[in-house]
Every structure is written in structure tokens, then in C-alpha cells.
Design brief:
Elements: H1 20-76, E1 98-99, H2 102-106, H3 109-114, E2 121-122, E3 125-132, E4 135-142, E5 152-161, E6 164-173
Antiparallel strand pairs: 1-2, 3-4, 4-5, 5-6
């Protein structure tokens, strides 16, 4: 016959150390904060990745936009006037994607001359700004987190010397 006394764990004593629930409590006290730290790092990493992925849109579009403005300048013997921004309000891209219509890119003479347009969803507001008769910038601005403040602003300078225009310098980021 079996004794039921052999199935009951022995009472804690100096020989057996901590009871099983004491060890479990220590393990849980270590694992729960560790999981919290790891999840916080994961959330930070994903947000940083998403920000860079969205900024990539502007970094790829601005050189194309600058080249389009240069072609417009070559065909019209000078840089075009400042364009209207697309979309017209920064609030349209504040924390969300925006799908511009073809008419937004063709209704402005400068944008129509350049032939530049965005057909897919965009996170940035794009504009050509003429500073002097021989220089200007293509720029992209965004409020990626939707808080009402611009945290991503890229510019690419276009300079013309002796009727030859080039996109100069690096893209500036704020």
C-alpha cells in the first residue's frame, strides 16, 4: 500500500531551502520587468523604422522633382515661379497618407511645366520655391506624427549659372 504522506511536499526547512512558490515568485519578479523593457525597446525600434521609411519617400522624390524643375527651366529660359504646395494644406498629410489628384499637379503652371507628380499615397507636402532668378529649392514637409508641428523638412537646392542649372548640395533635414 502507498502512503499519501509521500505525495505531499516536505515542509520548508533549512535543509530544503526556499519553498517552490518562493522560487516562482523570484522568477516572475525578474521576468515581468525584463519583458516590459524588451517590449519598450521593440516599440521604439518599430517607430524609428516607420519614421525612416516614410522619410524615404521625400528623399527619393526630391531629386526627381529637382530634375523636373531643371528641365522646365531649360525649356523656358529660366527658373519657374514658386509653385503652390501639394497638398495645399499641411493638415492634409498630418499624421496620415494623402492621395493627390492629377489636377493638383497640372493646375499650377510651374508644376505643369515640370511634369512632376505623385500618383500614389504620400506623407509629404511638396513645393518648388524660387529664391532668386537663378536659384530655388524643391522642398518636402511633413507632420508624420500628427501633432501639428513639422518634424521632417527636406530641401534640395537648384542653382543656375550661365544658363546651366544643377541640383546642388545635399538634402537638408530638420
Amino acid at each position: 500500500m502507498h502512503s499519501f504522506d509521500s505525495l505531499v511536499p516536505p515542509p520548508p526547512s533549512r535543509k530544503t531551502g526556499l519553498p517552490w512558490w518562493g522560487i516562482l515568485l523570484i522568477v516572475v519578479a525578474i521576468l515581468v520587468p525584463a519583458c516590459g523593457v524588451l517590449s519598450a525597446l521593440g516599440i521604439y525600434g518599430v517607430r524609428k523604422y516607420m519614421l525612416r521609411a516614410k522619410q524615404q519617400e521625400a528623399q527619393q522624390a526630391l531629386p526627381v522633382f529637382a530634375e523636373a524643375v531643371i528641365q522646365c527651366a531649360d525649356s523656358h529660359a529660366g527658373l519657374p515661379r514658386t509653385s503652390t504646395p501639394v497638398p495645399a494644406s499641411l493638415a492634409d498629410v498630418s499624421g496620415r497618407q494623402y492621395r493627390s489628384t492629377p489636377s493638383e499637379w497640372t493646375s499650377d503652371p510651374t508644376l505643369a511645366c515640370s511634369g512632376f507628380s505623385m500618383s500614389g499615397a504620400q506623407y509629404f507636402q511638396y513645393q518648388w520655391v524660387l529664391h532668386t532668378p537663378s536659384s530655388g529649392t524643391v522642398q518636402a514637409s511633413a507632420d508624420l506624427d500628427g501633432d501639428g508641428a513639422i518634424e521632417s523638412h527636406f530641401r534640395l537646392r537648384v542653382d543656375c549659372v550661365d544658363n546651366r542649372c544643377t541640383a546642388a548640395g545635399e538634402q537638408a533635414r530638420r
